[in-house]
Amino acid sequence: MHEAEVLTDPPSLSPQASCGFYLVLRDAGFALYMSASQEHVREMRQLVFKTVAGAGIGEEVAGSAQLVASELVGNAVEACGDFAPLVVDIDAGSEGVTVKVHDPDRDRLPRRPGTELDDDQAESGRGLGLVDLLTSGWQVTRTPVGKQLSCRVDHQGGHRA
Fold first, then answer.
1. How many CB atoms lie within 10 A of CB 156?
2. Which residue, 44, 43, 128, 35, is CA-closest to 86?
């Protein structure tokens, strides 16, 4: 019986599952498989902040990573609709925080923003501009089951020079 205890993962790293929400924790990050509901997005935002700040990186970078993840998830919801299956992958490393969001629509690709960040009249179109501002750049990769947007928030305050 004691051998089984040795073979299992530590409780903090065991996957956590509920309807439309499957979380795999790692030492300095996580992979979250979720349907894009308001509740799941809210939980994802909290998880990003707690994970990054808990890795000792700092609250400013944690806030930037949280905002970046939210914007990428928002773009995925815009492309695929509410309750779309998404994967949010966060890794807090020595160079920065890697944020990846995977959605199932490989054909609807994001475009660089055409809206200025300080345009008070714009109701949308600022998301990727914020990602540009807060990261060292972003890229899109088509995958066999959709596309993945990935970027990195650097430790130097989370902003690009």
1. 12
2. 35
